[in-house]
């Protein structure tokens, strides 16, 4: 007769308890993930107290950098929950800003037989290099050149430098436009400031007309951005009232795409992505840019290219976009 011996049930492994420092690190990861996520989602609702709103809005795209730091800390803590929480800000950043960094070259339409290339730069007053910037932008294939922060005499210098190929121009205060094509219906815009820092004109080409706005918004600082906000609000209202089918607005808006005051503009105009992707930061030029203050916005046009380029001695990079003309 055989005797069967019951085998002992397998021992269940007890979950390993985290050490105190690991629990503390996990708590920091959870807090960091929650804070960065909330700021990315609700940055435009942060109260404008002591300039906090401007700082948070402009920092919003950079908050995605918290994701890899939090993930590394979560892995060090050896907490699965911390790892899961660390992934949340990464997903939120992709949802909020990911579409803006996709290269335009992936989806841009082919250039037609008739295109228009528009360039714009804040040339930085006092450098004496306005004509140099204009010549470099002209050599880059621009059909229309818009410059901001012109100082005494620099407008005349640009006109003299470009006169042979850009015989049409319109200058208002510190903002000017030079064009290969005729300009019509040109007028200054004060946009609530009481002095002129913007203009509008119509570019008349053989393949249709385009309404152009060139803008140099007032400066924005944490505790002093009211004039800029008013300019952008009035510009947005002007654009909404403009019945032109094809519209381009360029210039130094002194606002990033994440700025709550800039959002009123993107409700009526679109900002194309960069040819090679990413955000296309324009300021400062050196040692590296971390804000896009200069923009090309459009309505009713197919954008085939959009990029930033250096020109002259400005602390801003220039923006340059090419569109298919309306009737091409």
TrEMBL record:
Kindly name one Pfam family recorded for this protein. Exo_endo_phos
Report TM segments.
Answer: 25-43, 49-76, 83-106
- Keyword Transmembrane helix set for record: yes
Does the entry feature the keyword Transmembrane helix, yes or no? Answer: yes
- According to UniProt, the name of this protein is Vancomycin resistance protein VanJ
Endonuclease/exonuclease/phosphatase domain span = 134-316
Q: Which UniProt keywords apply?
A: Membrane, Transmembrane, Transmembrane helix
Supply the source organism for this entry. Paeniglutamicibacter kerguelensis
């Amino acid at each position: 007769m055989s005797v069967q011996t019951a085998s002992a049930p397998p021992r269940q492994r007890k979950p390993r308890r985290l050490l105190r420092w690991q629990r503390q690190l996990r708590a920091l990861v959870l807090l960091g993930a929650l804070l960065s996520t909330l700021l990315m989602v609700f940055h435009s609702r942060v109260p404008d107290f002591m300039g906090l709103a401007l700082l948070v809005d402009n920092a919003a795209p950079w908050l995605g950098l918290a994701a890899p730091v939090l993930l590394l800390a979560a892995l060090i803590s050896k907490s699965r929950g911390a790892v899961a929480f660390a992934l949340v800000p990464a997903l939120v950043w992709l949802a909020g800003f990911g579409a803006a960094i996709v290269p335009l070259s992936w989806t841009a339409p082919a250039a037609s037989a008739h295109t228009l290339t528009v360039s714009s730069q804040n040339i930085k007053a006092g450098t004496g290099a306005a004509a140099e910037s204009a010549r470099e932008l002209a050599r880059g294939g621009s059909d229309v050149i818009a410059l901001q922060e012109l100082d005494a005499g620099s407008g005349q210098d640009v006109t003299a430098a470009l006169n042979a190929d850009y015989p049409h121009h319109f200058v208002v205060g510190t903002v000017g436009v030079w064009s290969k094509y005729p300009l019509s219906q040109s007028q200054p815009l004060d946009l609530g400031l009481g002095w002129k820092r913007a203009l509008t004109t119509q570019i008349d080409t053989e393949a249709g007309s385009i309404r152009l706005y060139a803008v140099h918004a007032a400066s924005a600082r944490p505790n002093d951005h009211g004039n800029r906000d008013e300019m952008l609000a009035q510009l947005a209202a002007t654009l909404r009232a403009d019945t032109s089918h094809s519209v381009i607005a360029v210039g130094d808006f002194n606002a990033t795409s994440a700025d709550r005051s800039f959002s009123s503009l993107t409700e009526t105009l679109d900002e194309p992505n960069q040819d090679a992707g990413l955000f296309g930061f324009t300021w400062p030029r050196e040692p590296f840019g971390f804000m896009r203050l200069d923009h090309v916005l459009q309505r009713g046009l197919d954008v085939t290219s959009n990029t930033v380029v250096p020109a002259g001695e400005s602390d801003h990079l220039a923006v340059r976009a090419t569109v298919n003309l309306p009737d091409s």
